[in-house]
Amino acid sequence: MPLVEGESLRDRLEREKQLPVDEAVEIGRAVASALEYAHQRGIIHRDIKPGNILLQSGQPLVADFGIALALQAAEGTRLTQTGISLGTPHYMSPEQATGDRELDPRSDVYALGAILYESLTGSPPFGGSSTQSIVAKILTAEPEDISATRGTVPDNVTAAIQKALSKLPADRFSTAADFSRALANPSFTTATGRLGAQAAFVGAEWRRRTLVSGGLAAGLGLLAIWGWLRPVPQPTPSIHRVQLWADPPTTRQVSQEMILSPDGSAIAFVDTIQGQRRLLVKERDRLDPSPVSDAVDPGGLFFSPDGEWIGFWQDGALKKVPRGGGAAVTFADSVQRIEPAGAWLDDGSVVFAREGRLYRVDADGGEAHPVSEASIPGLWYLAPLPGGRGVLFSSCEGSCHRSRVYVLDLESGALHSLLEDAILGAYVPTGHILHVQPDGRAYAAPFDLDELRLTAPSVEVLDGVALVGVSASLVVSQSGSVLYLEGPQLAPSGLSEPVWLDREGNATPIDQGWTLAAAQESGLALSSDGRLLAAALEADGKVDVWVKELPDGSFVRLTFADSVSYRPSWTEDGRTVMYVDHSGDRCRLMARRADGSTPARLILDDHDACMGQWSRDGDWLVFRADRADGSGDILGLREGEGETPAALVATEFHETSPELSPDGRWLAYASDESGRSEVYLRPFPAVDEARWLVSDAGGAMPFWDSGGRELFFIDGEGVLVASALDFGPPLRTRNRPLFSMAVVYAGVSNDRAGVRMFGVTPDGTRFFALRGAGSERIDDRVAIVLRDGWIQDLEDVPGS
């Protein structure tokens, strides 16, 4: 074993008996990270104890993998064979104590739970005068509650240790990474604790590295937290559960924005790091991903045909960056943000969207040219066909719960409808179009690449593709691998359940008779007295604004036009609702009496205003004017001062979500001028006199309490934050995180959409939200699945 200067955790506990809570948790999470690394490679430690955790400059190292490696060399012979220790009784799991032949990672999870228990209370979970008495208690007794010994231990830490010490392996965390996340998650409880139990699956059997230390080769080694461990030879399965991080920077382990390289050797995805959304790549032979660009808030990822470049959308432009990292290069501007944002063809050109039309540009830059004259509503999911013959894309109306897959003939510019009720389409090298239906089933249909048409009906080939809202994450590589999210259909699609949330995030259902679905990115608003709800809801495939008296009043439908109506807001008197009327690629602001007694009237038809708000006195209309590249400025119109709006916040950056304070003296909004979305505050209407940063770790979607003394927003990790304001002078803010919005929605992103799906009561104690039926964290419901060689499953499909 390499020489490690320092002491063991056993030495520390002998001296101090109990560790500070934060330090114990930090050590536990670091050890969990090391165990997760080993478990991913098929190695179970079997003898985790304080004496095998070495502290070097305060950093824990897990030592003595001798038992694990010896058993690996013996190819799984019994634990009790000569020369193999049975483990240390105080930290043995029940199954290890009874001599089970097969142990899995959950046995090490139990041992780590016992170590943390001792680190916090000063004693192991079970003691006794002999090994036999200790084992008997492990099998039959329950440990004393940690809080009874040490009341300062946070509830989530107590709950996580309790779960780790469960008698049955099935009741523990599935992985050490799950245990680590629970320790860091203040909202974790044993009652709701499915934290990643099914989502953060043990990572795939990635391509092997032969990085061997002398100590490991000798059969007795030291695993550093970020070190390398000899992989375990084992058969390569065709289905892998992929873990993007060994120790994720947030509580998430699933990304909805991920793509697979053409050769299937890497996954590119977007995740939040220190409050900023970044582009990362996880190679098969790496435990953790690596950032490949300093671009903030990228989206619409797509690979080049050779897999050496990654294209993405940022700030209204198409950019590319080398897969191995480097400076991003812009090659097209005024680009519409869709997923993916481009289809990279074999000839080096890229097809992209601009104001609902498709254009083509060389990936090395140059002038972009339209490839079709058609304006396509709800355009998304561009996918190239081989040989540059054409491009597949999806098109949808309204809330996108119904969509079609089309093919664009790049030679003629003609569009052809291929599939109805299909969310996305992708070409498979067998000559099929793979498409996903709204029920999460994937089908394959044989496709004539010369004539650009289907030649036979579709056949089901895959089930269980998770739909988050109306979006499905599924990518096929040219090597025949398929990468997708596996799981059920998640909110916000499906029925919605209205709930009140207290300031701790505890939900109370409101109306059991609710029958409508919240439309994606639709918005809702409470009247100033908290009695009336205005929300954009879906019925019969169409999105309209409805009004309902809470808690159990009837629905009144306000909008009946063929266009999409959403993002409602109230006048101060609670009598009128203003909303966005969206037709094609154009927005305008409309208003109607809340009881439906008057016709809808046009408020603003210019400036492509896709969100707006009246001041309480009705003197000002503040709105966001959208630009073609997806960005926008905040403008204002004052009653009696003409039809030319004043530029309130108009910069080269992206401003969104304007919210006037109840007294009309302050304007809150979100902007990415710092490189990420943050919430700012300006005096109103003298907006140029001062500006204050309110959020400090990312911020979006601000809204006020009725008294104007508290401003709420969503931070960079999807947590609802309350900012108490002291207007001074000088102005001071005090931010307090309340709860993760994941308790309501399957996915909450801190982005520029600015669509608020919650409201606050007049007294500021409760929040209204529409929770997707059965809503849980995405990580708790879905898994990332990679199926290598999946293309072989299509051999029996007609047309292969």
Q: How would you describe this structure to a colleague?
A:
This protein has 3 domains: 7-223, Transferase(Phosphotransferase), domain 1 (Orthogonal Bundle); 245-488 and 782-794, Neuraminidase (6 Propeller); 496-781, 6 Propeller (Neuraminidase), CATH 2.120.10. Strand 7 and strand 8 form a beta hairpin. The chain has 800 residues and is mainly beta. Residues 69-86, 191-237, 490-494, 746-753 and 774-780 have low confidence and may be disordered. The protein starts with 6 loop residues before the first strand and ends in a 13-residue tail after the last strand. It is built from 11 helices and 57 strands. Strands 22, 23, 24, 25 and 26 form a 5-stranded antiparallel beta sheet that branches. Strands 34, 35, 36, 37 and 38 form a 5-stranded antiparallel beta sheet that branches. Strands 1-2-3-4 form a 4-stranded antiparallel beta sheet.
